Amino acid sequence: MDGRREGAAAAGRLSVVVPAHQEAAVIGRCLDALHAQLAPGQAEIVVVANGCTDTTADVARRHPVRPAVVELAVGSKSAALNAGDARVSAFPRLYVDADVVLGPGAVSALLQVLARGDVHVAAPEPRFDTRGRPWVVRSYYRTWQRLPFLNEEPVGNGVYALSQEGRARFDAFPPLIADDLFVLRHFTVPERRAVRDVSFDVQAPRHLSDLIAVRTRAYLGVTELSAWQEGRLANPGASRARALRDLVATWRDVPAVLAYAVVSAAASTRASRRWRRGDTTTWDRDGSTR
Predict the structure, then answer these.
(1) Which residues contact 269 (CB under 8 A, 6 or more apart)?
(2) Cis peptide leading into 92, omega within 30 of 0?
(3) Percent helix, strand, coil in the chain (nearest 5)?
């Protein structure tokens, strides 16, 4: 057993739920990362292929990590999460998007944090691969990673782990786009932890249009959750503007901050139009990295 698997095994058993929609091109690397960190028999792993017309399910079945595979006819992440929950029983429970690659030691680190008992939701830090991307895409993510909300123990962006007590905070996943934000809102800042010394890799969009599509879905998810919670989430516009102003220490910061602001405004406007049309089912995604 290699060192990484030995470290993970020492931290105990867990369940892993991987929702996957049309992810044949990327799910292999997601499962590779899990395979590298898990001891044989340590985890119950289920891949839920939802609304797939590609070979996502077949790729998952052939993988050496040997996950259980559930196929759903409808493309719905919330339905996939619930179907995955129904197939596993162990805790903690790790939810991983199929395009996410967990960095070395991430599983073991998450289990150790949750084992303390005072933290009930945890995630590694995101690491966005922006190599070879246009300047505006690189600038967007560079600015995003400087925003102050990252100091408030954010978790999500494609992966999070819940303790048994944490998972008991809510029943089924509701039919919402922003499942990670829905989960986050059940925990106070001390109860959640962004584990700073481990990461997960996300491929940044290769084109500006794909970045705007991804961010449109994110803003639409926030709007949908706000309406679902009867307006309990505040409008972040004014606080976001103040945060961006605070990032401008010298004139050299201005172009990147402006790039972030323009992309955000474009995505927010598209999301608002979609919301007014009642369109929350169109699946905006980054096609450039798949």
Answers:
(1) none
(2) yes
(3) 45, 20, 35
Residue 86 has a pLDDT of 97
Q: What is the mean pLDDT of each run of 10 residues along the chain (290 residues)?
A: 42 88 96 95 96 96 96 95 97 96 95 94 92 96 79 73 96 92 91 90 93 92 85 50 64 83 93 89 79
User: What's this model's pTM, rounded to 2 decimal places?
Assistant: 0.87
The encoded tokens of residue 147 equal: 């925003």
Domain map (residue ranges) of the chain: 3-133+152-206, 209-277
Cα–Cα distance for residue pair 89/290, rounded to 1 Å: 31
The label of the residue with tokens 């030995």 reads: 6
Please, which residues bridge with residue 46 across strands?
A: 17, 68
From residue 194, alpha-carbon distances to 31, 109, 150, 169, 237 in Å are 22, 11, 9, 19, 24
Quote the pLDDT of residue 243. Answer: 62
Number of neighbours of residue 217 by Cβ within 10 angstroms: 21
Rounded to whole angstroms, how far apart are CA atoms 279 and 290? 24
Phi, psi of 72 (to 5 degrees): -115, 140
CATH superfamily of 3-133+152-206: Spore Coat Polysaccharide Biosynthesis Protein SpsA; Chain A (3.90.550.10)
DSSP string spanning 100-122? -EEPTTHHHHHHHHHHTSS--EE
